[in-house]
Amino acid sequence: MVINNGRLGEVYNVGGHNERTNITIVKTVIDYIHENVDKEVTESLIKYVEDRKGHDLRYGIDPTKIKDELGWYPETTFEVGIKKTIKWYLDNEAWMKNVTSGDYQKYYSKMYENK
Predict the structure, then answer these.
(1) CB-side exposure of 49: number of CA atoms within 13 Å?
(2) The whole model's pTM is what?
(3) Is there a contact between 12 and 66 (Cβ–Cβ < 8 Å)?
(4) What is 25-79 written as a DSSP string?
(5) What is the pLDDT of residue 115?
(6) In this structure, what is the dihedral angle of CA atoms 4, 7, 10, 13, given to the nearest 10 degrees?
(7) Do the Cβ atoms of 62 and 47 come closer than 8 Å?
(8) How far apart, in Å, do the first and last CA atoms of the chain sit?
(9) Per-run averaged pLDDT (10 residues), the chain, 115 residues
(10) What per-residue confidence (pLDDT) applies to 101?
């Protein structure tokens, strides 16, 4: 959509006007896993830590321009999208292990470093 219809040189923020706090997202993930995978996964697993110095207080974007200029809007809600995302990761455990292993990183370093 942006490539075909956007203005050259413009930046378009893509978002759904649905900001959530980190803790809300963590609790959403825990609730999904608790209900669908493992009843032992509860909020008791959350470990609260102090904020690091200079950390960003929030990440928020304004997707008004992409909506107004290009007619883009999210096709799913946060609630549906986060559940689909969690399920995808749970269903693709082998992929997760592969991309988090040192071998994966070594492969990409070998293929793309210094080129």
Answers:
(1) 7
(2) 0.77
(3) yes
(4) HHHHHHHHHHHHT-TT--GGG----PPPTT--S-----THHHHHHH----SS-HH
(5) 67
(6) -50
(7) no
(8) 31
(9) 95 93 95 98 96 85 96 94 97 91 83 80
(10) 85
